[in-house]
Design a protein that fits this description.
mainly alpha, rod-shaped, DUF4355 domain-containing protein
Length: 213
């Protein structure tokens, strides 16, 4: 038996109140947006599927943005932060660096000369000054003060060691008028200082005191 479309319509109209017919018709109709929203809220599987689809589309869109848009943004930012220099700008930058280097060398030479004068004044070995010159005058003076402390302590240690070797009785005072004083600025001599400290600590003390006068 063949049933045409008109017969189907008549059957559905006549049985519109039938629960099975109504359920069948609901299955056939196109779901609305509200139906989909309600289904997503009530059905956990549908909710999970929709979330996975959203994540997939987001990841795909992000990857496309990284490949097509991000490189140009990075390049523009690099150009903004580090603009390309013209030949004139590079030459000017080089000239400024050379001038700055000359200024620093001049300042260091002035510090070196001042440190050397101070070392001679304090009876310190001037040939060691270069090792104590710093970038600033304050630091250089601080270094020289350290040198003075170490040098003075070393001399005292030599005197003490000599006393231990020769006993606690000091040598008799000697005439120092005719002796060239190696602690004086004009006759400064480290070798002579060490020799006198070793052979005659008492004389060394006298000569050091004379040099301070």
């Amino acid at each position: 038996m063949t049933i045409d479309l008109q017969q189907i319509r008549e059957f559905l109209t006549q049985n519109a109140d039938n629960e099975e017919v109504r359920a069948f018709l609901n299955e056939l109709r196109t779901p609305s947006l509200d139906d989909i929203k309600r289904l997503a809220e009530e059905n956990e599987e549908v909710k999970t599927w929709l979330q996975s689809e959203k994540d997939r589309h987001f990841s795909k869109g992000l990857e496309t943005w990284k490949q097509k848009t991000l490189p140009s943004i990075i390049e523009e930012e690099i150009k903004k932060r580090y603009p390309e220099e013209t030949p004139e700008q590079r030459e000017l930058k080089k000239l400024r660096a050379e001038i700055e280097q000359m200024r620093r060398e001049k300042e260091r030479e002035a510090l070196r000369a001042k440190a050397k004068d101070l070392a001679i004044e304090k009876k310190l070995p001037s040939n060691l000054v270069d090792f104590f010159v710093a970038d600033t005058e304050e630091k250089t003076l601080e270094n020289l003060n350290i040198l003075e402390q170490v040098w003075t302590q070393s001399l005292q240690n030599v005197v003490g060691e000599t006393f231990k070797q020769h006993g606690r009785e000091p040598h008799k005072p000697q005439q120092t008028q005719s002796i060239e004083n190696p602690w004086r600025k004009e006759t400064f001599n480290l070798t002579k200082q060490a020799q006198i400290l070793k052979e005659n600590p008492e004389l060394a003390k006298q000569l050091m005191n004379q040099a301070k006068e």
